[in-house]
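debug: dumping io for the single-chain case to check the tokenizer round-trip. Nothing else runs in this session.
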Amino acid sequence: MNAKIRKIIPQLITLFVVILVFGFFTYNAQTNMDNRGIEFGFGFLSQESSFDVQFSLIEYDGSHSYFRAYLVGLLNTLLVAFIGIILSTILGVIIGIARLSSNYLIERTAAFYVEFFRNIPLLLQIFFWYFAALRALPLPQDADPIMGVFFLTIKGLFIPRFVWENLDVFFYSVLAAIISIILIRNYAKKIQENEGKQLPVFYISIGLLIILPLITFLFGGVSLNFEVPVIKQLSTTSFNYDGGLGIPPELIALTLALGLYTATFIAENVRAGVQGISKGQKEAAASIGLTPNQVLKLVIMPQALRIIIPPTTNQYLNLTKNSSLAAAIAYPDLVLVFAGTALMQTGRAIEIVSITMFTYLSISLSISLLMNWYNKKIAIKEK
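debug: decoded output
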């Protein structure tokens, strides 16, 4: 028996055992369902849901199907995950670099932030922002405007809504600017590698992002208006805002808690990544006339990212899965809408739980694939 076959046999045995165990539990579940007269199937997804959701990114009411309710919960979950990842990344990078500052006050403040937020359970932080901080805000009729158009109340944050005409033309101009920036960055990278020259890519990128959309705005028939929220009396004692865009307090509390909590771990990843680079490289870069900002941008961060990205990917996954705690404050995410209300109404526990688990698995795998691709892309390749 050669070595190749000896390696394959244990894998085949493991696969057989996994299939056997999965088959046993599947057969056992099917037998119990048959004995209780429970049918398995996904036909219920086309049935009318008969319940409303307080916040939705797409049109939805009780007359829509359970599948539509699933989409509402999924989009709300993705919204929280997206905002949380952006917020935690920005805060994490800033706090991580601040922890390396030679300024005692900045370094200690950053250290206090990390130790404070990461050592308080996430659920308690969500409760604090929702039940303590946001519930202390004024009622809509008592709220003072911020800059004349923003209103922060106990019912959420109300902001002006953009009303576009010929938005597709503006969108194409932004897309053209992004494609141009990518091409310019690739060209600048080749110039730097081959000739050692640095092109002002940052300023060119900013210029393209401003000039191209501005041209279409001025000459492409694109117009932009603002719909400002206006206070409206609903009943004798009830007031709310009409028009504009309303962000519910549940979304604000959840994203704040997830962002602030996850940022502490990303900050430590950033600090570890920067400290993992040899001090001699920093000194060598400084000796050839690079400024501290150039040393950080051109020498330290490109190498530190190899250390930072893998653990940061884990934090993105944790943030996405932790968003399921939204059910604790009644934010209509996938767990509350689909694995909660829909499950209780239909009684389809196995089907709904399976769909929910598969959805979170798919989201997590997608994030992992994207981050692994980026990690390979930024890897330093030896020539």
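debug: round-trip ok. DSSP finds eleven helices and seven strands in the chain.
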